[in-house]
Design brief:
With about 160 residues, this protein is mostly helical. Helices cover about 50% and strands about 5% of the residues. A 3-stranded antiparallel beta sheet has the order 2-1-3, with no helix packed on it. Helix 1 packs across helix 2 (about 25-35) and helix 4 (about 75-80) crosses helix 5 (about 85-105).
Length: about 160
Amino acid sequence: MTDTITRGTLAHAATHGLGIGHLTPGQAWAAHRLAMPPERLERPLASHIAALLENVERMARNRFFGGVSPNDTEAMIHRAHDEDHPMFLRGPILETLRDGMEEFFPGLKPSGVDEEGRPLFNLADLAQALGASEEDLLAYAEKMGIADQLRTTPTKPLH
């Protein structure tokens, strides 16, 4: 966590779900979302600034977690991949998903990355790792409404 709060470091912290200086990741995101001037974020935070950041963060948490049962993993996974939600809420879930992929599918490696550096997997490799056919995976993607996320264009290779 860096100590100097500037517009640039605040934007970086908000985008990556990080804290900055004395601000928590949620406060950094809220301050960035409100386009708050860095000089307003000096330590100690004025009580009205702290209350404002807390309310904006709470609204984001309610929007992210609201209406979802704690047992509805599909909905939480979907929300974790929804870039409309802040990274400070999505990040821990995405990290857990990455850890699970590495633990349960250690031989499955990305075949490339997208424009933002996210890993992409070959459908045949996924099918083999899951013990399913490519057709079954395509049908499941269609059923789950994520078929539009499948790419047929060349990816940036890793090697």
